[in-house]
Amino acid sequence: MTETYSRDEVAKNNNEESLWCIVDHRVYDLTDFIDAHPGGSVVLTQVAGTDATTAFYNLHRHEVLQKYSSLCIGTIEGETPEVIDQNPGDLSVVPYGEPIWLRKEYKSPYYGESHRRLQKAMRIFTDKYITPEAQQKEKDGTYISQELIDRMA
After folding, report:
1. Which SUPFAM superfamilies does the record cross-reference, listed alphabetically (predicted)?
2. Which tens digit of pLDDT belongs to each residue from 44-63?
3. Which phi-psi region, left, alpha or beta, contains residue 15 (left: φ > 0; alpha: ψ -120 to 50)?
4. CB count, 10 Å around CB of 47?
5. Among 31, 74, 28, which residue's Cα sits nearest to residue 55?
6. Mean pLDDT of 74-85
């Protein structure tokens, strides 16, 4: 995703044959996704060629963009995305999205750095191994693999 586009270039891709939009200064090619969009094709054609950041975030969480990151074809020239993609194990930056004891500035006689390290290791493991397989198994309706069970053990 090193391509850069102008807002005028994006505006030219405003129909079902070539449907692009902007979300958080990133350009998404939704042409092949239009029939798969859960909200229907009409919603996407309404934002085709435009900056759909507000419309997107009114209806979706940022994780949706991460799930469909393959649809991102570049960024708007001279602009930088404002929303930061989280890495596995990172704490949420959403206020009160995490237990307060996980914050470094919180001092507790009960929770220390070893608790934070354990929590981070468990979250990295979950983000890296469990979540992707669980999402795939939910789609295809099968059970989790023995490999994942062995890894968890």
Report:
1. Cytochrome b5-like heme/steroid binding domain
2. 899 999 999 999 888 888 88
3. beta
4. 20
5. 28
6. 85
Q: Which two tokens stand for residue 121?
A: 């290791």
How many angstroms separate the first and last alpha carbons of the chain? 37
**Please, what sign has the CA dihedral across residues 9, 11, 17, 22?**
positive
Give me the DSSP letters along 6-70: -HHHHHH-EETTEEEEEETTEEEE-TTTTTT-TT-HHHHHHHTTSB-HHHHHHH--THHHHHTGG
Q: 51: Cβ–Cβ under 8 A, 6 or more apart, which residues?
A: 7, 21, 22, 23
Tokens for 56? 């997107």
